[in-house]
Amino acid sequence: MDGRILANIGVLAAVVESGSFARAAQTLGITASGVSRAVSRLEAGVGVRLLDRTTRAVALTEEGRRLYEQINPLVAGIGEAIDSASGASVAVKGRLRVNADAFFARLILAPHVGRFLQAHPELTLDLATREQLGDLVSEGFDVAIRFGEPPSSSLVSRKLLDTRSLTVAAPSYVRKHGAPATPADLARHACIQMRSPMTGQPLAWSYRKNGRTTQAHTSGQLHLSDGWTMLGACLAGAGIARFKASGVRELIRKGELVELLPDYVGDRYALYALYPSRHLPAAKVRAFIEFVVGILDDPAG
């Protein structure tokens, strides 16, 4: 590869990551006009405009976004390889941007995150809770932690946990509407519909018993994308809902929720770590993933 093209690609990456020509210039130690010329040369070589420029901001064009999604893991891999050769890849420092759903962030990560930061004093954790996965590369995330099967993409996925789901309702709902005896009975109940954080579509409800799988037909007036809102609505008697077992066991023990269909095994939910680069993931990404694994493996929670 022509070294000039690689250098220009590096400049483009710096502009995207910093959000402006001026900040990219500061990062790279060159002038803002030098950054602009490098991007223009890259655009001329590719034959399309890669950045939309205004007096206030720069943004990738559609063609630029596609190119950046493909080249960014490669550029990052080169940098990580150099760091690895120099021994710097073992240093957990800098800024770590994590994309997570609110359920994981609040229930699993929040009680332990202080311990992670204490172990890595040179690291800054930027944790964003999102309803949808979004685009990790273009939004600048290092890693995402998500329940559900990962989408087909160039992202690397690592399964961290596999947990069963429980079907529950508030005692007030059961007193008023009764309890379903089989998954087929759910069709006559108000079922709170949860959208997948990966696809945005309502999650299907299926059950297993004696080696047979049954697909339940559910419907309801309430459609949500946030697990904590769903939990609040369920506790208030708005309908039947399904939750990851780890999130509702204590509420069932206290009598605030009633487990339904206990003879049927609900769907299992997998927790995945997703990150862009297949080769040499940064030390901060490896450290965070291993920390999450440690939390999940700890029986004390």
Automatic annotation (TrEMBL):
Residues 1-61 form the HTH lysR-type domain. GO terms for molecular function: DNA binding; DNA-binding transcription factor activity. It holds the Pfam family HTH_1. Keywords: DNA-binding, Transcription, Transcription regulation. InterPro entries: LysR-type_TF_proteobact-type, LysR_HTH_N, LysR_subst-bd, WH-like_DNA-bd_sf, WH_DNA-bd_sf. Belongs to the LysR transcriptional regulatory family. This is HTH-type transcriptional regulator DmlR. It comes from Achromobacter dolens. The gene is dmlR_19.
